[in-house]
C-alpha cells in the first residue's frame, strides 16, 4: 500500500504504527508546499500540505495499481490556517476523472473522504479542482490500499463505495 505525505516532496519516514510515509514529489508536478499554522493535529503527516494557487485542476497520479482489483483511496484535508487567512476553502475532489465530492474544509479540524472502487487502468488519479476563483484547493494526505478480493464484495467491478460514516462498534473509549 501507499501513504503519501502531501507537501513533503521527498521525505520518507515510518510512523509509530509501522506505516511508511513517502513524500509526494513523485506523484504530482504542480502546486506549492506549506506548513500548517494551527498545530493541533496528532498526525505528523497533517503538518504539511500541497496547495494549487494557479491551476484550475491538479492531479496526483499513482502508477502500478492492479487494474480491476478493488482499492481504497483516502484523501485527507487539514487546512490549519497555512495561509494565515483564517478562511478554509471549498473545492471539488475527483478520482479518475469522476466527481467524488465537494469538499468544505475546516479551520482546525482534519477531514477525510474515502472511496472503494476497481480502477479500469493501471493507475489511479486523484484531483482537486477549483470551484471558485478565491478558493485555493489543497491536500494533506493521500492513501491507497489494494484490498483482498473478498473485501467489500459487490455484484460488479463498476460499483463504487463511498464512506458515509465509520463507527467503532463494541469499543468502550470511542464516541
TrEMBL record:
Pfam families: Malectin_like. Residues 4-172 form the Malectin-like domain. This is Malectin-like domain-containing protein. InterPro entries: Malectin-like_Carb-bd_dom. It comes from Nymphaea colorata. Its main location: membrane. GO terms for cellular component: membrane. It is a single-pass membrane protein. Signal peptide: none annotated. It is found in: Membrane.
Amino acid at each position: 500500500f501507499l501513504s503519501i505525505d502531501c507537501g513533503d516532496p521527498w521525505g520518507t519516514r515510518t510512523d509509530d504504527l509501522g506505516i511508511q510515509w513517502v513524500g509526494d514529489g513523485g506523484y504530482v508536478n504542480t502546486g506549492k508546499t506549506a506548513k500548517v499554522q494551527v498545530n493541533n493535529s496528532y498526525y505528523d503527516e497533517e503538518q504539511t500540505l500541497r496547495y494549487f494557487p494557479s491551476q484550475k485542476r491538479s492531479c496526483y497520479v499513482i502508477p502500478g495499481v492492479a487494474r480491476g482489483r478493488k482499492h481504497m483511496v483516502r484523501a485527507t484535508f487539514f487546512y490549519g490556517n497555512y495561509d494565515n487567512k483564517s478562511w478554509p476553502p471549498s473545492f471539488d475532489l475527483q478520482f479518475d476523472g469522476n466527481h467524488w465530492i465537494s469538499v468544505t474544509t475546516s479551520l482546525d479540524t482534519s477531514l477525510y473522504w474515502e472511496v472503494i472502487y476497481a480502477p479500469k487502468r493501471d493507475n489511479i488519479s486523484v484531483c482537486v479542482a477549483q470551484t471558485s476563483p478565491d478558493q485555493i484547493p489543497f491536500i494533506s494526505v493521500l492513501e491507497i490500499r489494494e484490498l483482498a478480493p473478498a473485501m467489500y464484495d459487490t455484484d460488479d467491478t463498476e460499483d463504487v463505495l463511498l464512506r458515509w460514516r465509520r463507527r467503532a462498534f463494541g469499543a468502550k473509549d470511542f464516541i
